[in-house]
């Protein structure tokens, strides 16, 4: 428990530090949507902090796997979103949320809320740093699922960027992985976090961190992910037909 509380405390400090830097960057850039770039960084920072302050508190292989999984996923996501959002104005989501709101509301709803969610979702990373017992097949299954999810979302993002760069593109992206699911990136994220949970869950009390993938999948499907994005896409030419024939989340063969 002492090791866990130490890891949790320093993970929280790391999250707050990233958010503080992000807020300063948002004032320079003139838009709060830079928090999207920091989302993946929050988990990498939390994992690294928990790892550094708890040497010898758990199985070293598991600790190393969790740090690598968080940093690689978070780093790729941050680089992708940073590249995609370069030169663009404020995201309409934040513009609508923060219209006529003061700095305190902004700090709580954009930075405070995401920081709190990150600490909840990062629990497999924190708990897994302090649990002993060797790595077994369940953890390796988690690593395999994480790798599948990371590749799935990276390929989906790459295909979407190629689509946007094509001057002869159709009204809706329905190529590659986007032919089988309307949200390859969100499905990939879900696989990543279920995989991370499995690495922590094979040793007690890691199984209790199941709240992490549950919250993440809920956000991806019903929160600020799929539902909000599809609300913005409603009415676009070709969208209704694409939505009818393409799975909303899990990859499935397209319907006729």
Helix content: 55-70%
Shape: globular
Number of domains: 2
Unreliable stretches: none
Give the strand content: under 5%
Secondary-structure class: mainly alpha
What is the multimeric organization of the chains shown? single chain
SSE series: HHHHHHHHHHH
Q: How far is the N terminus from the C terminus?
A: 55 Å
Radius of gyration: 19 Å
- Give the number of helices: 11
Largest sheet: none
Mean pLDDT: 91
Query: How many distinct beta strands?
Result: 0
Primary descriptors:
single chain; 256 residues; mainly alpha; 2 domains
Topology of this protein?
Elements lengths: L1 H28 L5 H18 L7 H26 L6 H6 L5 H19 L1 H6 L8 H29 L18 H18 L9 H12 L3 H8 L5 H7 L11
Helix pairs in contact: 1-2, 1-5, 2-3, 2-5, 3-7, 3-8, 7-8, 8-9
Mind explaining what this structure looks like?
- By secondary structure, the chain is mainly alpha-helical.
- Helices cover 69% and strands 0% of the residues.
Structure summarized in a few sentences:
This protein is an all-alpha fold and 256 residues long.
């Amino acid at each position: 428990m002492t090791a866990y509380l130490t890891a949790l405390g320093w993970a929280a400090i790391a999250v707050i530090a990233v958010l503080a830097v992000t807020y300063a960057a948002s004032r320079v850039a003139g838009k709060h949507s830079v928090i999207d770039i920091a989302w993946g960084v929050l988990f990498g920072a939390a994992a690294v902090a928990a790892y550094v302050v708890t040497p010898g508190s758990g199985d070293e292989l598991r600790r190393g796997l969790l740090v690598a999984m968080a940093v690689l996923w978070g780093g790729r996501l941050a680089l992708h979103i940073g590249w995609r959002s370069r030169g663009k104005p404020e995201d309409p989501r934040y513009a609508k949320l923060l219209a006529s709101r003061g700095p305190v509301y902004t700090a709580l709803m954009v930075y405070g809320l995401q920081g709190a969610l990150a600490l909840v979702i990062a629990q497999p990373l924190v708990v897994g740093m302090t649990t002993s017992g060797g790595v077994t097949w369940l953890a390796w299954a988690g690593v395999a699922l994480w790798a599948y999810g990371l590749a799935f979302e990276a390929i989906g993002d790459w295909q979407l960027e190629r689509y946007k760069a094509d001057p002869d593109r159709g009204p809706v992206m329905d190529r590659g992985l986007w032919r089988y699911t309307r949200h390859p990136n969100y499905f990939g994220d879900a696989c990543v976090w279920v995989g991370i949970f499995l690495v922590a869950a094979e040793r007690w009390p890691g199984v209790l961190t199941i709240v992490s993938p549950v919250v993440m999948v809920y956000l991806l499907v019903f929160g600020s992910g799929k539902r909000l994005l599809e609300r913005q896409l409603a009415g676009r030419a070709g969208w209704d037909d694409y939505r009818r024939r393409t799975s909303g989340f899990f990859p499935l063969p397209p319907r006729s």
